Amino acid sequence: MRKMGLTSWIFIGIILGVFSGWLIGEPLLVVSQPMGTVFLRLLKMVIVPLVFSSIVTGVAGIGSTGRLGRLGGKTMLYYLTTSLLAILTGLMIVNIVKPGVGAQLGLQTPPESIATQGTGIGDLLLRMIPENPLAAAAEGRMLQLIFFAILFGVFITRVPRKFGQPLESFVNGLFEVMMQMTRFIIYLTPFGAFGLVGSIVARTGFAPFVPLGKYALCVVAALLIHACITLPLLLRLIGKINPLKQLKAMSPALMTAFSTASSSATLPLTMECIEDRAGVSNKTSSFVLPLGATVNMDGTALYECVAVIFIAQYYSSQGQVLELSMVQQGVVVLTALMASIGAAGIPLAGLVMMSVVLDAVGLPLEGVGLILAVDQILDMGRTTVNVWSDSCGTSIIASSEGETELKILAGDRS
Ligand code: ASP
After folding, report:
1. At the topology level of CATH, where does 3-400 sit?
2. How does pLDDT run across 98-136, given as a tens digit for each residue?
3. Which residue puts its alpha carbon closest to atom 2 of ligand 1?
4. Could you state, in order of their start, the residue ranges of all structural domains in the chain?
5. Which of 20, 239, 347, 364 is the most buried (most CB within 10 A)?
6. Cα 294 to ligand 1 centroid, rounded to whole Å
7. Radius of gyration of the chain (CA)
8. Distance 191 CA to ligand 1 centre (A)
């Protein structure tokens, strides 16, 4: 199945799910429920090794290029700042629109722990530190696992090469295998989509689609604000670059990102556009872009945050849990950031990572099934924003390194 092929199949799965749920009703659950459950379990299965290896590979990659110094510092600063700005934009919009409040989503699994977790900031920090990293991995405590993975990645680069190197290649290998496995599971998404969407419609009819539409609009609005206001402002103010020229230079890559929903598949084109059309040197782009394609995902980060708060709003308005406190929203922001760093640059990776964020605030994974119904189009949008942010970062960093060819972008040359 090629990428666009997969997209069409998922779409077909969703449509078939909707129609069968509608026509057959409750009896469909005999088939659709197990299909949805198997798909969600498969997603859960890959999450721990995928997140661990992805984060260690990314962090060690930044550290071991030997260029960590100034360029690495600027790159990290850019990645973190823009991802956070994106998440905050999403957070603001979803809190204003409140698409999940009063929604009839028909989710059945009761949330476990959201109301019982401590709410202090000290508590949050403490909860991030695993007493035993293996137990954290075994029990799927993602925040703790991520905390350990980041440290592990950093310290791999601090030990003598002969010790660090084998570990790094082992984790790189693990990452490649997990990516391959995830791709395989993603090929099963059409069945998962049929099972999950079919079950929702069979149980609750079409009521969930109105709030789902509202949720999707929140994501789209936040993506647009980030891509059309925040990033252009950064380009203009920090990089002294004309955003329209940057957009023109990057348009082939952005269109590819939209149609493939994969930052990694778009990477060769992103590099070509940024070097040949925007005038960034290979020295800068070869450092910033490959990392950015997996580590810097503003669109994904924003989407994780909006989706999880949407699901939380649903549960709290059902009276099943308390409303998310400020600190719990802080946990969502932080985990959304981590999840976007951990997400691979392939279609639907953001959906896979959502369990990390849901888990951190104690919400059941079942919500993912619901979100899946509208995830195709959102994936295309967020991938475009991911690639756009990578390209803006590369140009800003190149400009701060004094690269003169960028004048093309600043409009000094035609
Ligand atoms: N498809 C996105 C990307 O490749 C990741 C995601 O699913 O959010 O950038």
Report:
1. Proton glutamate symport protein (1.10.3860)
2. 998 877 776 666 665 444 444 455 666 777 788 999 998
3. 383
4. 3-400
5. 347
6. 9
7. 21
8. 20
